[in-house]
Amino acid sequence: MTKGLQMKEVTMIYGEGSNQMKALDHVSLSVEPGEFAAVVGPSGSGKSTFLSIAGAMLKATEGEVRLNGNVISTLTEKKLSTIRLREIGFIMQSSNLVPYLHVLDQLLVVKRMSGTIRREDQQFATKLLEELGLGQKLRKFPEELSGGEKQRTAIARALMNDPNLILADEPTASLDTKRAHEVVSLMAQEVKSRQKAAIMVTHDERMLAYCDKVYRMNDGVLTLAATS
Ligand SMILES: Nc1ncnc2c1ncn2[C@@H]1O[C@H](COP(=O)(O)OP(=O)(O)OP(=O)(O)O)[C@@H](O)[C@H]1O
Ligand SMILES: [Mg+2]
């Protein structure tokens, strides 16, 4: 069984008839556990579409998506929602934290969605937050956090269910340079130490140094631009 994410000849067409728009054109890639891949490209080139398909949020028009060897591109919506919950961690442009939950509960709510919270979950959440430099912020609410702290909370939350795949769409868009470096270097560290397959869409060329491979998206066509 091949671990990680494999996409084979994935094409995405939005709309119908004369309104058709090819957002992805035979995209193939493979991301192994412990590999941190970046996708760059102009606005409208298909990056978010690509990430949504990789993350089982959107069904491709054609092609195959495999996660840890299992084909997910043909699953029903119900099965896909289970995969999203258990196998995939998302980090978005803005951290999307729940305003009335403190930092520790932002992580535990993920567990509550998939069952009950055990003592080990509390310990794991605390450990993750400590790793991400938030050990002093466990009982703080989002409005009491800086932009970088919010994004680091979002990274911890994405790791909470121990997913196989981490997907990040412009995770540094709302951060200054120093905080962007902090956030992405911590992400890279977690990807390595926890052996996650990870893909980050970014406009920020300075963040590419933390990634193992850089892919470029142009008009829905994905090409490998650099390998470190
Ligand atoms: N739900 C949709 N219905 C129709 N067309 C869409 C839909 N979502 C995206 N598109 C189109 O598909 C193309 C790719 O969009 P996508 O959001 O993937 O680009 P992107 O590379 O993420 O851009 P950005 O850098 O601005 O976020 C664009 O032309 C967009 O207008
Ligand atoms: Mg986008």
From TrEMBL:
Membrane topology category: Peripheral membrane protein
SMART domains documented for this protein: AAA
Gene Ontology terms: cellular component: membrane protein complex; plasma membrane
Alphabetical keyword list: ATP-binding, Cell membrane, Membrane, Nucleotide-binding, Transport
Pfam families: ABC_tran
Family listed: Belongs to the ABC transporter superfamily. HrtA family.
Source lineage: Bacteria, Bacillati, Bacillota, Bacilli, Bacillales
Taxonomic source organism: Paenibacillus amylolyticus
ABC transporter domain residues: 5-228
Major localization listed first in the record, in broad terms: membrane
InterPro entries cross-referenced by the UniProt entry: AAA+_ATPase, ABC_transporter-like_ATP-bd, ABC_transpr_LolD-like, MacB-like_ATP-bd, P-loop_NTPase
Protein name: Putative hemin import ATP-binding protein HrtA
Subunit description: The complex is composed of two ATP-binding proteins (HrtA), two transmembrane proteins (HrtB) and a solute-binding protein.
Subcellular location as annotated: Cell membrane
Tree of life domain: Bacteria
Molecular function terms from GO: ATP binding; ATP hydrolysis activity; transmembrane transporter activity
Entry keyword Amino-acid biosynthesis: no
Function summary: Part of the ABC transporter complex hrt involved in hemin import. Responsible for energy coupling to the transport system.
